[in-house]
Amino acid sequence: MFRFNRLVCSLCFGLGLTSAQAAQPPAVATTDTRAASQPAGAVPLATVRVEGQRQADPQQPPASTRELSGQVLEQQGIYRLEDLQQLASGLDVAVVDPYDTRLTLRGVGDGGGSEINIGMPSSVGLFLDNVYLSRPGMLSNDLLDIERADVLSGPQGTLYGFNTTGGAIAIQSRKPTFTPQGSIRQSIGQRGYTQTQGMFSGPLSQTLAGRINLSHTEKGGYVHNEYTGHELGGSNQDGLRGQLLWVPSSDFNLRLIADLNRATSYPVAVLDEANAVGVTRPYLDRTQLVGAHVVGGGYKVNTDDENKAYVRQGGLSAEANWALANGFNLRSVSAYRYFGFQPNATDSLDIPLYAGSGADVRDRVWSQDIRLDSPKGALFDYALGATYWGENLDTFAHDHYAAGNQTTQYYGSTSNTGKYVQRWGKIDDSIFSLYAQGTWHLSDVWDVTAGVRDSYEKKSGRFRRVNKNDFDSGDLNQYEQLPAAMLNVSYFFLPNVQGYLTLAYGEKSGGMNVSSGAAAKAGYDSLLVDPESTRGGELGVKSQWLDDRLGVDAALFWSEVRQFQTTAYDLESQSSYLINAGTMRSRGLETNVTLKPLQGLTLNFNGTLLDNKYLDFENAKCPAEVSLAANAPATCDMSGDRVFRSPKLTYNLSGRYEWQTFAALDAFVSARYAYRTWAYGTVDNSQFSRIPGYGLLNLATGLGGHYGDGRWNASLWLNNATNKRYYRTLNTGDYGSAFGVLGEPRTLGMTVGYDF
């Protein structure tokens, strides 16, 4: 495994092959040469399947990367970004709706807060077909027809660009083929779940191939609204991805990808608890005062209006590869994406407080990356590149508060009553960066890899709020230099045992308070947020034993994030805003073990033991249990406390057994158990937002066989088999309340498909 890529490169040079020839259309043969070469009466050999995994990037040094093939994703039934955490420990994906989706790796990622602020990027980069997506919701379509998904932990700011100081997730879709192929899938399940998929790929000419994917997914709700009788929490989505692959010669290929996606979701948060503060429960006192009827403690709500969110998005990318003289390869990736989000948010009560609210978002992103890779197999190989990235983002937040005594009584003042509060935010961002990374093969056992990147960012924006604490920021401008560097040393103790040490540094983009605005008392400087910097290290080992039937990877990791970006809360405007806090530290142990004890049986365990703390976080927002009490301090010191959304232990255990049954049918059974300990759901570490630990058990079984020129398959699956009630997110609400987005209950379903 470790020398696989180097061996392949040596064979390629020996045969005079180039990297572009892998995509060359096959020659047309009029006879079966294998059959013609066999003597009469000879017994044909059985088909041998060779399993291997293409390296994500030839310049990527050894690290604790979780490499997930598309076949594994399909076998495990992983079709959503949020479900990747059930295969990759240390990854946390918190989803409220397509816009409010947050990624965290080893506790580093999004600075938190009760609402998304468009002025702050995540520390975890998401890439689709080598294109950086500025927000997770831009991952249009489900994870269908995927070649591979790599989860890379720790700073990745050299090869994977800016804003990857916490890590990166790189997803590659399958390319068009010059051999005709296709597949259809139909899944059905409880509560109206249905998913229809179709894929067709094949040649359009001798030099042009195409691929098209279509999908439709519907999920019924699982939270009952007692007021309307509706079931909330469901969604429906339509996706289309089309590709063209042009290979006019052996030294050039061009891949064009276009996708469109539209989705409607009905997000809902349930009341977890009306918490006590002292001897009272302020939330119940306030709701009783206005005559609201509160329900909680299960899959139910009682609200006179309901949330709805619309997403319309799409993109176009072009990747060209030239095989140059002497083994060099030049790659160009050009892309444009559009993301449109329109919510209709309401309060959680059965009386009118506010409705028709939310933050409309329009995000347009374009990028150009050019990269030159040297030939492989020499003493030193390298990659050089340049990236330009631009973004134009607009948001319009609108809060429609109801008129009347109930609104006045609930909020305790007339500051919201009858108001239509409007907020406009705008960002124009551009980044230009140069990068280089190279590997010295000092001997057969020693490799040293070093990389650097320097990015220059120019960001401008503006924020304006009217009809409540009116505020206009005026024009804002920010200019930043964002350096990154990495050093990796690896050593083969044995041909099957490789150790490595990685040291890395990176800086994430600064931020702007253009979603809610900063507190007026904080002054103009609070509108701009400085970049945060991350120093990281990893000491690990990768090994294969028992003729590759046992693989054991383990790594100790450490990261320190300074000036980390997070949120504070302004009571006057009742909104969060961005700040630079002190220092946080993430450290721990990560391991991945794969065992194949007998033919057809594969077992995998991956786990992360995490210690993530605020080393310095003074003047933090106080949790609700403190701020609502008598004589509450204005701020709290959270130094030494655990970082939110950082469970101490996460692990995933999976097993799959395949065998051949009667009538030459292929059968399988599989199981997956994903567990995580408790974590705080909000940045203030409120006990009210503490998410209990939970484990999810998924089971599946199925059959498959030949029919005509293709293969059919059918499976029966059971997700959340123990019907565990768990929270995907949990946030504090008004007056000591806590509201959370529940995960889906037990779901039984089946999938049938045909590959041809």
UniProtKB/TrEMBL annotation:
Membrane topology of this protein: Multi-pass membrane protein
Main localisation: membrane
Domain of life of the organism encoding this protein: Bacteria
Protein keywords: Cell outer membrane, Ion transport, Iron, Iron transport, Membrane, Receptor, Signal, TonB box, Transmembrane, Transmembrane beta strand, Transport
A Pfam family assignment: TonB_dep_Rec_b-barrel
Keyword Transit peptide: no
Compartmental location: Cell outer membrane
Signal peptide location: 1-22
Ranges for domain TonB-dependent receptor-like beta-barrel: 303-720
Domain TonB-dependent receptor plug: residue ranges: 59-168
Alphabetical list of PROSITE patterns matching this protein: TONB_DEPENDENT_REC_3
Family to which this protein belongs: Belongs to the TonB-dependent receptor family.
UniProt xrefs under PANTHER family: FERRICHROME IRON RECEPTOR-RELATED, TONB-DEPENDENT OUTER MEMBRANE RECEPTOR
Protein name in UniProt: TonB-dependent receptor
Source organism of this protein record: Pseudomonas typographi
